Amino acid sequence: MIFRLFRKDNRRIAIAALYERIATASRAPGLYAGLGLPDTIEGRFESLSLHMVLALRSLRGKPQPAEEVARDLTDAFFRDMDASLREMGVGDTVVPKRMKKVASSFFGRAHAYDAPLDAADQGALAEALGRNAYGTEAPAAALARYALAADQGLRIIAIETLLDTGPVFPRPEAFAEEGSHDT
Asked: Rounded mean pLDDT of the chain?
């Protein structure tokens, strides 16, 4: 029984490290300066959501413990969102309502990005990202190219590597268009 507790603790540590790597990637300055994501609370949520969607997609079809890792990683994301709301001063009675909105937004984005990522459809993904990440009808072509490259790269990473070293996201600056942020 004691060994089981240590294993759970090791898993918790691994999930926390994995989530931190994803969150750090979502804050890469190139996403904001190069790809034009708004450097606002909403823009940071959009970036973190996109990176979480990409990381969770990379776990699909991988051997165990991939399913458990995906569940634990999703839990870590929502715990972070809950803590962030509380840090911003949202009252205890309002947090559950806000968390429902956060969950709805996150899962809506995951659904909106899934089919275009599956089909490697840059145009459809650019439209979805434009609406969600930039709040505009203008397609986010550079961000879509970045997301497609990240998705393709993450698919080939073994679960062991993902847990040991974390996901490797491309450099956002490599996808920026000269003089344009697609917004």
From this structure: 88
Q: Which residues contact 62 (CB under 8 A, 6 or more apart)?
A: 158, 159
C-beta atoms surrounding 160 within 10 Å:
10
- Provide the CA 173 distance to its chain's centre, in angstroms: 18
Residue with tokens 């709301």: 85
- Cα-based distances in Å from 3 to 6, 9, 10, 11, 14: 5, 10, 11, 12, 16
CA-CA distance, 180 to 183, in Å (whole number)?
A: 8
The predicted pLDDT at position 3 comes to 41
Length of the chain: 183
Q: What angle do CA 18, 59, 150 make, to 5 degrees?
A: 75
Reading the block at residue 162, the tokens are 């993902």
Please state, in angstroms and rounded to a whole number, the distance separating the CA atoms of residues 27 and 29.
Answer: 6
**Model confidence, pTM:** 0.88
DSSP 122-138: HHHHHHHHIIIIISSSS
What gap in Å lies between CA 28 and CA 12, rounded to an integer? 25
